[in-house]
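Two entries, shown back to back:
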Amino acid sequence: MEKSCPFCAIAETSERGSMPSNALAHIRLDGFPVSKGHLLIVPNRHAADWFDLTEAEQQAIMELVERGKQWLEERYQPDGYNIGMNCGAAAGQTVAHMHCHLIPRYAGDQPDPRGGVRWVIPENADYWSGR
């Protein structure tokens, strides 16, 4: 538990509401969603990133990825998903409490979604056009 961590503060409150959870982790809506229904899967224990989790916590996160997908299917019927974790500042992590993004994708939300997560480094993303 880190007093200054926004995810630790939420883990101790009832703010999680009726979102799916298990003994080691919980799901919450992203406060800055990139698409309708963007979810975060967050371990209850404060841990910096995926590699700081125990095997049981990693399994709990993956269980909730599936349950989060089911939750999204019931409410939004997305056409696809991006699943991602930023581990370390160089990878773009801004909150030092591990969290997994489950981002629903919808046909037409981007003109050309090919490459998906490869766009984190735009100049290396497009491998198919021969540029």
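entry 2 starts here
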Amino acid sequence: MYTPPAFRDEDKDSLLATIRAARLANFVTATADGPMVTPLPLFFDGSEGEHGVIYGHLAKANPQWRIPPVGEAVAVFMGPDAYITPAWYATKRETGKVVPTWNYVAVHVHGPVEFFEDADRLLDLVTRLTDLHEGERAGPWAVSDAPPEFVQAQLRGIVGLRMPVTRIEVKRKMSQNRNAADRAGVAAGLASSDRESDRAIAPLIPS
């Protein structure tokens, strides 16, 4: 991922927060037949390996797991994003030398991928993934709420993936390359936007 120095983010807590908040990621493998991409809910386990492990699962009918990857896989987690209009820049009024851009946060996690079909490992995986997302609800659903034979049948339709992390790239593009007046204009513009997602980014613009 191309990341100019101004947009690099090496804060571990920040990148983990982006991974957890993303909820859905794009799982990418390069193959002899070309790149393959599947949107998946993935989670990060920092207790395994030197840099942690990414877990998730694909439908068994998905050909991505059957085609040998060329090199490492990549999990792409996107954070908040927003269009930035030049109208918000003080520089527009001063020189007019401005163009539109986009602010966003992206985390690319790289590593070799292992696919598995073991029922016990799959049950543990889907239980952890379910508990992660159901834990925020007032009345959380659990895998154990479903009949065991039904769960086992569902497990036969998926394939687990385990990706030990070798490298993480983080890009936090939040107008850091603009001057203080331009950044203030961007923050004010986002804060007054009709889009909830824009308003959520406003506090992330450095002052």
